[in-house]
Specification:
thyroxine 5'-deiodinase activity; selenocysteine; Iodothyronine_deiodinase; two-stranded parallel ribbon; two-stranded antiparallel sheet; oxidoreductase; globular; alpha+beta; Glutaredoxin; thyroid hormones biosynthesis
Amino acid sequence: MTRLAAFQRVVSQYSDIADFLLVYIEEAHPSDGWVSSDAPYQIPKHRCLEDRLRAAQLMLTEVPGSNVVVDNMDNSSNAAYGAYFERLYIVRDETVVYQGGRGPEGYRISELRNWLDIHS
């Protein structure tokens, strides 16, 4: 959630040329697991879809007006896109045209912005 402000700025800047979607996946640092000391929320490991939906609601409060969907409990979106913990993608005409690195180290909002600048 710490990178959502930068993501929200990109959404605002490029909303006229792109649709943006956040996919909430399993919690990276659950409060009953490997806890991050700088986590803004204490979210336990999701035991059911309702847990995940509640956690996604917290994320939605950080990025109001954004489109947020939730991965299923089988984590099929996470597995398909290798998103664990966070990752940026651009999909055009059902084809992945940009795949950012895996977060947190490979998550670079500046790369996404550069791609959008070049291809818009």
